[in-house]
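thought: user wants a sequence for this fold. calling inverse folding tool.
action: design(structure=
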């Protein structure tokens, strides 16, 4: 034994209810096992067992219970035995053998052997072996051993009661071996009964398959049919095992419910695992002590010697010397100093913690304010987003109508331009035919032009048509001189872009109808914020900029405002022809509203208010709305290249746009190129008109030849003046110099040479006064009479 003292310590562990319940279930199972072993050998127990089974089968337990059955079946108080006591009882049982096995009782007293319980097994001597050989049958029994407990021990009497057969008859019937003739007779009788289909239950050969009477056995809810129905599952004993099956399981619906159910299952599994792993140390220690006391420890090696622990007391510590007064005072002083230091540190910590608490309170207040502002911001933006969606729906419905009206306006201008261009070309051909001769008339190959009824229209005489055009031109010139009070206007120098009275009336009617359609676009709108953008999107975006400046600037709110304001700007400019309506851009409402919006702060001391964070939004609208609209109008025929007023108006418009938009702007460059294309088309049309006449080289005599040549040169000179005026504004961009040279060399000089002495030289000298010297070649200078000095 070691010198270390043995100390006995009793550990107290809390036993859970489920652990004790599990031990009690194990004890009940073992007691049932021992009871079954005892009852297996008793014939009376077998009879009572089957009788109870038949009674329960005849009267099934109902599903519903009203309390009376529970009160009658209350469990009686039973003494619970521990596992150790059960083992001791098992050892004392007469059927127990060493090693934990249970011996089966013999079926007869002849096979039983009287032996002491202390012996480990039966003694196989010569006498016992002879007895075993005598009792062993030499052939197979007439009845199956598996049905011995069903057919051999029990029979049905005529009154329906179970009658126990005597053991002697049982043993005699088991030992009897039927002969071959008996077996053949029994087989023939069974075949005869099977064929006839009649069998008497009271006959000696009748073997009942059930231990209860047929009329007393429960036949189910539908005795007339053996088919099972859905409702037959009720009352079949499923409720008894509902705890161990899925009978009480509910199907969870929803993600949250499934999550809760899964958590509950996990907790139950964890509890079961914890219960299985739990060890009751107190109970285990008590059982081991009882085993040691009884001397029946199965784990101990029998050959190992038994040892008894020897109690050894704890050693007494060595006595220490009593401290002196000085050392005690010194130690107390040190403790007091450490306490003072600790107090100072704690005071400092308290001050620091107090300051931290104040900071945390301030931070909490600040965070609460941030959260409050964030919530207000969220609610405001939610309202703002909903309003923007309504504006988007409004624009999706109205924009197609606006675009359709804009295309209609452009088509009206194109139709007027085509009419004026055709009449002007016809007048030029008339003047060319007077001093260069008419063009030869080509023979008509087809049937000619047809009217609405399919009849061939007679061809008009060219001379008569020419006289009619000259008369109409003279009338228009007289009316224009009368209205403008210009008697000294040179013939041919006027633009003469006036439509005939009937066509002019149709043109004005089309413009009036277009104006009415424009007013009908917003006729079904009742809210003022959708009628006037200054009351709608202007106020909304201004509130956004004022409340949340950082998000407004980061989201480029100004450009969003311009995109939404585009509809109202285009609707206001619908029907506006800048070459007839001399209103400037700053006269429109959208211009004034955006100008004020772009300058939110206005001081009386400052002449020009400062721009806001968005910059000048007017320039953005001009770039995205005004310039594309002007490009379509000019390309559709709003600009007349032969009109000096239109040319001056084009120069004024481009200068006004240039104040807000830079020259290198992409859309601005496109506008200039379109105006350049208008002048180029006019020069090309003039060249294609006179080249066939100049190719004849057979000038006839006509009394109106001189005046016709002067009119033609006057028109070409006016076109030259307009092109040079545009060139001075654009600084020779897009090849405008080539147009000037082509008009002078290919159009004016050939016509002037046909009548140089009778008016051609005068017209060329007039052009030479304004022709740029840097564009004239030496030959052109000689023809124009321009000196190098």
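)
observation: tool returned 789 residues.
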């Amino acid at each position: 034994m070691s010198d270390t003292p043995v100390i006995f310590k009793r550990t107290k562990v809390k036993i859970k209810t489920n652990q004790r319940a599990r031990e009690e279930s194990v004890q009940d199972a073992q007691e049932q096992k021992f009871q079954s072993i005892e009852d297996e050998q008793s014939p009376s127990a077998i009879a009572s067992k089957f009788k109870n089974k038949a009674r329960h089968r005849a009267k099934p337990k109902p599903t519903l219970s009203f309390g009376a059955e529970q009160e009658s079946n209350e469990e009686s108080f039973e003494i619970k035995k521990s596992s150790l006591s059960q083992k001791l009882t098992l050892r004392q049982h007469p059927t127990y053998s060493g090693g934990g096995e249970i011996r089966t009782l013999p079926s007869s007293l002849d096979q039983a052997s009287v032996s002491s319980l202390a012996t480990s097994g039966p003694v196989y001597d010569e006498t016992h072996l002879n007895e075993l050989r005598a009792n062993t049958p030499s052939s197979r029994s007439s009845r199956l051993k598996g049905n011995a407990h069903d057919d051999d021990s029990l029979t049905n009497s005529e009154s329906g009661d179970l009658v126990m057969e005597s053991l002697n008859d049982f043993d005699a019937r088991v030992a009897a071996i039927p002969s071959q003739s008996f077996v053949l007779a029994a087989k023939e009788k069974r075949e005869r009964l099977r064929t006839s289909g009649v069998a008497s239950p009271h006959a000696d050969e009748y073997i009942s398959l059930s231990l209860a009477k047929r009329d007393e056995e429960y036949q189910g809810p539908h005795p007339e049919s053996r088919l099972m129905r859905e409702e037959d599952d009720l009352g079949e004993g499923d409720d008894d095992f509902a705890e161990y099956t899925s009978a009480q399981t509910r199907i969870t619906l929803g993600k949250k419910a499934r999550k809760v159910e899964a958590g509950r299952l996990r907790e139950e599994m964890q509890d079961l695992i914890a219960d299985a792993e739990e060890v009751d140390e107190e109970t285990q220690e008590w059982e081991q002590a009882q085993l040691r006391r009884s001397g029946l420890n199965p784990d101990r090696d029998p050959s190992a010697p038994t040892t008894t622990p020897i109690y050894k007391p704890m050693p007494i510590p060595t006595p220490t010397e009593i401290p002196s007064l000085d050392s005690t005072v010194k130690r107390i002083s040190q403790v007091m100093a450490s306490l003072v230091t600790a107090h100072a540190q704690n005071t400092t910590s308290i001050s620091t913690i107090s300051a931290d608490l104040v900071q945390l309170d301030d931070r909490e207040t600040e965070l609460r304010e941030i959260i409050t502002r964030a919530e207000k911001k969220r609610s405001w933006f939610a309202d703002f987003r909903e309003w923007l969606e309504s504006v988007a729906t409004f624009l999706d419905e109205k924009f197609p109508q606006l675009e359709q009206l804009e295309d209609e306006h452009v088509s009206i201008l194109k139709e007027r331009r085509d009419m004026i261009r055709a009449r002007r070309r016809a007048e030029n051909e008339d003047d060319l035919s007077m001093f260069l001769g008419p063009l030869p008339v080509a023979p008509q190959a087809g049937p000619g032009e047809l009217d609405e009824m399919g009849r061939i229209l007679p061809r008009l005489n060219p001379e008569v048509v020419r006289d009619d055009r000259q008369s109409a031109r003279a009338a228009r010139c007289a009316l224009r001189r009368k209205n403008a009070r210009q008697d000294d206007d040179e013939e041919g120098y006027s633009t003469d872009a006036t439509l005939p009275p009937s066509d002019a009336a149709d043109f004005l009617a089309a413009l009036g109808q277009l104006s009415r359609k424009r007013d009908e676009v917003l006729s079904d709108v009742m809210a003022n914020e959708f009628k006037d953008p200054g009351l709608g999107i202007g106020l909304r975006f201004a509130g956004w900029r004022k409340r949340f400046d950082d998000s407004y600037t980061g989201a480029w709110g100004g450009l969003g405002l311009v995109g939404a304001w585009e509809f109202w700007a285009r609707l206001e400019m619908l029907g506006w022809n800048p070459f007839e309506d001399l209103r400037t851009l700053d006269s429109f409402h959208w211009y004034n509203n955006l100008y004020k919006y772009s300058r939110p702060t206005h001081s009386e001391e400052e002449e020009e208010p400062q721009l806001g964070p968005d910059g000048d939004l007017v320039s953005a609208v001009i770039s995205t709305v005004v310039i594309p609209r002007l490009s379509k109008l000019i390309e559709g025929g709003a600009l007349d290249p032969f009109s000096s007023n239109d040319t001056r108006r084009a120069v004024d418009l481009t200068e006004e746009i240039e104040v807000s938009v830079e020259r290198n702007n992409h859309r601005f460059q496109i506008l200039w190129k379109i105006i350049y294309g208008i002048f180029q088309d006019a020069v090309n049309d003039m060249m294609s008109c006179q080249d066939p006449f100049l190719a004849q080289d057979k000038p006839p005599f006509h009394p109106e030849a001189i005046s016709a040549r002067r009119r033609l040169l006057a028109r070409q000179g006016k076109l030259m003046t307009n092109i040079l005026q545009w060139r001075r504004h654009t600084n020779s961009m897009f090849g405008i110099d080539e147009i000037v040279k082509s008009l002078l060399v290919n159009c004016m000089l050939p016509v002037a040479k046909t009548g140089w002495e009778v008016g051609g030289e005068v017209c060329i000298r007039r052009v030479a006064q304004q022709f740029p010297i840097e564009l004239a070649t030496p030959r052109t200078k000689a023809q124009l009479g321009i000196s190098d000095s």
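thought: summarizing for user.
answer: Here is the designed sequence. The longest helix spans residues 325-436.
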